[in-house]
Specification:
Bound molecules: the ligand Nc1c(N[C@@H]2O[C@H](COP(=O)(O)O)[C@@H](O)[C@H]2O)[nH]c(=O)[nH]c1=O
Structural class: mainly alpha
Strand order of the largest sheet: 1-4
Helix content: 40-55%
Catalytic activity: 2,5-diamino-6-hydroxy-4-(5-phosphoribosylamino)-pyrimidine + H2O = 2,5,6-triamino-4-hydroxypyrimidine + D-ribose 5-phosphate; 5-amino-6-(5-phospho-D-ribosylamino)uracil + H2O = 5,6-diaminouracil + D-ribose 5-phosphate
CATH superfamily: YbiA-like
CATH class: Mainly Alpha
Organism: Reticulibacter mediterranei
Radius of gyration: 16 Å
Protein name: NADAR domain-containing protein
Largest sheet: 2 strands, parallel
Shape: globular
Number of domains: 1
Number of strands: 4
Strand content: 5-15%
């Protein structure tokens, strides 16, 4: 893995590598439903199987989906802390597997570190001091590895 100095930083959808954000306008189909963004899917899974999940799915923007998903008055599923990383990985993998152009951007980052430059979020992002867990960046690196392995195995099949 590269040094932090060479790392790829992303956050805003409008910025370079904006397609790495869960707010980017790339819809996915998961659990037999259409989701406008991975942010909609991720936030809805906090209330899977309830009417709140559908309300989030139909939210007009990822910002509104996230606002609803973070509402502390809503009944968060009990196992959320245990499953949230898996939900995020599943959504991000699905997005990059759906859009070949995005997969190419991610694969072209080679071995570089990927960091969500979100100063407000020490869990998914780098946090206020830059030493946050950066879980979204790590998940993007995991997805990059999975996609690379898929590309390699499809090339092996093509050779045979
Ligand atoms: N707030 C924000 C983003 N934060 C995103 O929200 C998700 C985490 O939600 P939660 O677990 O409820 O805190 C995760 O995908 C994180 O990257 N992203 C963006 O592009 N723009 C924003 O303004």
């Amino acid at each position: 893995m590269s040094s932090r100095a060479e790392a790829i930083f992303f956050y805003k959808v409008e910025g370079l590598y904006g397609c790495f954000s869960n707010f980017s306008s790339h819809s996915i189909v998961m659990k037999s439903r259409w989701w406008p963004t991975t942010a909609h899917y991720f936030q809805a899974q906090k209330f899977a199987g309830t009417a709140y999940a559908e309300q989030i799915r139909l939210a007009p923007t990822p910002q509104i989906a996230t606002e609803i998903g973070r509402d502390p008055r809503l009944p968060l599923r009990r196992d959320w802390e245990q499953v949230k990383d898996d939900v995020m990985r599943e959504a991000v993998l699905h997005k990059f597997a759906t859009y070949e152009d995005l997969a190419k951007v991610l694969l072209a980052t080679g071995e570089k570190q990927i960091i969500e430059n979100n100063r407000l979020d020490p869990y998914w992002g780098c946090g206020p001091d830059g030493n946050g867990k950066n879980r979204l960046g790590h998940i993007l690196v995991e997805v990059r590895t999975i996609l690379r392995e898929r590309v390699c195995s499809s090339r092996v099949i093509a050779v045979y």
